[in-house]
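Step 1: inspect the first sequence and its tokens.
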Amino acid sequence: MTSEKHQKKIAVINDLSGYGRCSLTVVIPILSALKIQCCPVPTSILSNHTGFPTYFFDDYTDKMPQYIEQWKKLKLSFDGIYSGFLGSEAQIQIVIDMIKEFRTEETLVIIDPIMGDHGKAYQTYTPEMCNRMKELVGYGNIVTPNLTEACILTGREYPKEGFKRGVLSQMATEIQRLGPESVVITGVKEGSFVTNVVLEKDGEPHFIRTRHVGNERPGTGDVFSSIIAAYAVRGVPLRDGVRKAANFVKECILKSDELNVPVENGVCFEELLSLLIRH
């Protein structure tokens, strides 16, 4: 784990959607561009993401423990464990068990507590699942909720007019009290800007802004959190990682609008991967 020639590895727990640019089809190339080996743990297989009118779905919950068991036998180790969308309470418990099994002093755990957006929890997320997600968040070194998920984690109503910065700071502090060292509340709209609230261990909240551009698209959260995860395991300061992630997402949205990519197809980040590779 300490060798200068050691290539960083992140175990990524997420679904695989064949079309639509989200989850593992985003995470794998983003991590690879940033010189991280991505080791997927699929939670489900979909023909395309659920924002399309029809899709095939295969739940992988029952297979996940058998899959992870082989990694235990191989005595694998990881620089990071990164959890994305989870489809059931059982999957949340599987991830908790995996963190306990594979975490070392050098392993960073990044939790993207994907539970909802635009003020509403996803239909698959019951109150019981939301409570279990609070437990999972406690195992993270870094957690990246959006504003909707931050409201769920802190028991607040989603604000129609937005939260003032003092309340955002308080929310980040309350999430930090659940256990994670660092909290990034993502995608908070402030006029013509999008703000990310960053609270690190023993620090004050920082507000990192980028100009709001283009259409909202699926998969941008996966791009954002993947960049944060990659930079974190490479030792880049969190605030720098957040700035790089926010700027890259902005450029991807602009490029996608320029090329008239349908909104449901996500962001055409492939056009801009060279920016990450150069960095």
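Step 2: inspect the second sequence and its tokens, then contrast the two.
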Amino acid sequence: MIFFWAFLIGGLICVIGQIMFDVFKLSPGHTLSTFVVIGAVLSGFGLYDRLIDFAGAGATVPIMSFGNSLVNGAMQEAEKHGLIGVVTGMFEVTSAGISAAIIFGFLGALLFKPKG
């Protein structure tokens, strides 16, 4: 049953994104930013962790999970280091994913002919 809920919730998030593209004519940057902010706000209210418990990978794979990671990292480090921990915590928790995106993007540009 967990696969069903993961598929349903992940698909629903994707449908919302597609509606933002098609109906509201938002650019990909606006849509991604909106999802990150929504994930951060839900995490700030403690709701995103409940969604992860319910939907599993359906909630952890989409871009909303990045906003959740930012808030969780900031809150963990804020408890340890105060205000400076808010800033450093966001970078500490998400640095592996950002670094991987940069490295794989660079390798992809080396292997394939990028347009632009």
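Step 3: confirm your contrast with the notes below.
The helical segments are 2-22, 28-44, 48-55, 57-60, 64-81, 83-111. DSSP finds six helices and no strands in the chain.
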